[in-house]
Structure formats: structure tokens, C-alpha cells
């Protein structure tokens, strides 16, 4: 079986982690780098990623995560927080990064900058938040798939109270909002769900070739 399919078949939403097993620093860096290299619209990456290992913070997060054990038992808890609002400074910072990285004069990027600003700056505030959250999900998906390639278990989690996360992690004052969480680590032998057959729509039902 091709590794691409094998890894995705092996992966499942881990319900019970072995709290004694930790992801190595080396593998964690690979996960983070794979996430850093994720695609995003215009390349802007309008989100921030928090890697949480502090036991006290995770104990605070568990009750506002529907009491799910993955919050405290996984090796690492990764919180993806999207930018809630933005102005032209976000595009300007990105363009400066492009100029520095690619050794391009900043003035040569003005046209692209003006184009981005024309498409994004006039969006209503709530739509800006929806758009940035979608970008965070792209990075989140890349981390989850990278984990499967490293045979690191994960559990994607939307079952939490965003506002409570924002308060506990001090996100609101940073213009951020907790949008999605990924628990990573290694499955417990006691997790029965690892033996369940993967349930997905058939190819015929899911895909239409035109």
C-alpha cells in the first residue's frame, strides 16, 4: 500500500493517550516545521500556534474542553489561534519578509501589496475572522498529516469553549482567538477506538468527475 494511503488509514482520532509516552524534541520540531511550511492564502499565515506542555494550564483547559482526557494526557497540546482582526500592517509585514527573504526591493512588491489590501482590508470584521480561521485550519491539517507520517497519534478537537481558552491563554489581548486544537502523542493500548474500521463515504458518493 502506498505510504500516503497507509498513513491516513493508520491515523484515527485518538481518544485515549498513553500519558507516559512523550513526543521527542526532534519529532516536535519536525511537526512545527511542517506546520510553518503550510500553504496559506497570499502566504500571510494570519494565525499563531501555541504548544502547551504546562500541566497547570492544561488542567485549567480540560474543564472547558468538555472534560476530555486528551487535553491533559497527550504529550503536547497544540492550540491554533487565528487573528481576529487586521489592518494593512499585516500585509506590510509580510511584504517586508518577502523582500528580505527573496532579496527583492520592497518597491517592486507594491503592486502585489495593493492587490492584497484591495481584497482584504474592506472585509467586515466578522468575515475577516472567518477567513483567518480557515487559514489556521490549513496549517492544522498539515500538522495532523505530518504527525501520521511520523507515526505520532493525534486528535483534532473542536469540542472546547473558545472564549474560555482565550481568557486562560490571554489570547484576546493579542488579537487572537482559539479556533482549533490538536492533541498529539501516542495511543494507549486501552483505546478501543484504534481497532474500529474507518468509516468514510464511498468514492462514488464523494467524488464527481466532470
UniProtKB/TrEMBL annotation:
Pfam families hit by this protein: Nitroreductase (PF00881)
Ranges where the Nitroreductase domain occurs: 10-186
Keywords tagged on the record: Flavoprotein, FMN, NADP, Oxidoreductase
Keyword Oxidoreductase: yes
Entry's Gene Ontology molecular function annotations: oxidoreductase activity
InterPro entries, per database record: NfsB-like, Nitroreductase, Nitroreductase-like
Gene3D superfamilies for this protein: NADH Oxidase (3.40.109.10)
Cofactor(s) in the UniProt record: FMN
PANTHER family membership: NAD(P)H NITROREDUCTASE YDGI-RELATED, NITROREDUCTASE
Family: Belongs to the nitroreductase family.
Name of protein: NAD(P)H-dependent oxidoreductase
Lineage, opening ranks: Bacteria, Pseudomonadati, Bacteroidota, Flavobacteriia, Flavobacteriales
Amino acid at each position: 500500500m502506498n505510504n500516503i494511503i497507509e498513513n491516513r488509514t493508520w491515523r484515527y482520532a485518538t481518544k485515549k493517550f498513553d500519558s507516559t509516552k512523550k513526543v521527542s524534541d526532534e519529532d516536535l520540531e519536525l511537526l512545527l516545521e511542517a506546520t510553518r511550511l503550510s500553504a496559506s492564502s497570499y502566504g500571510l499565515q494570519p494565525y499563531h500556534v501555541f504548544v502547551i506542555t504546562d500541566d497547570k494550564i492544561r488542567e485549567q483547559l480540560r474543564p472547558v474542553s468538555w472534560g476530555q482526557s486528551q487535553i491533559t494526557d497527550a504529550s503536547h497540546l497544540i492550540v491554533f489561534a487565528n487573528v481576529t482582526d487586521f489592518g494593512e500592517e499585516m500585509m506590510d509585514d509580510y511584504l517586508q519578509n518577502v523582500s528580505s527573504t527573496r532579496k527583492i526591493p520592497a518597491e517592486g512588491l507594491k503592486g502585489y501589496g495593493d492587490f492584497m489590501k484591495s481584497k482584504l482590508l474592506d472585509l467586515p470584521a466578522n468575515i475577516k475572522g472567518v477567513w483567518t480561521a480557515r487559514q489556521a485550519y490549513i496549517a492544522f491539517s498539515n500538522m495532523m498529516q505530518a504527525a501520521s507520517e511520523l507515526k505520532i497519534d493525534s486528535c483534532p478537537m473542536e469540542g472546547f469553549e473558545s472564549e474560555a481558552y482565550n481568557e486562560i491563554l490571554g489570547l484576546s489581548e493579542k488579537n487572537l482567538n482559539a479556533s482549533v486544537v490538536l492533541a498529539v502523542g501516542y495511543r494507549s493500548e486501552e483505546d478501543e477506538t484504534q481497532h474500529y474500521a474507518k468509516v468514510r463515504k464511498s468514492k462514488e458518493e464523494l467524488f464527481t468527475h466532470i
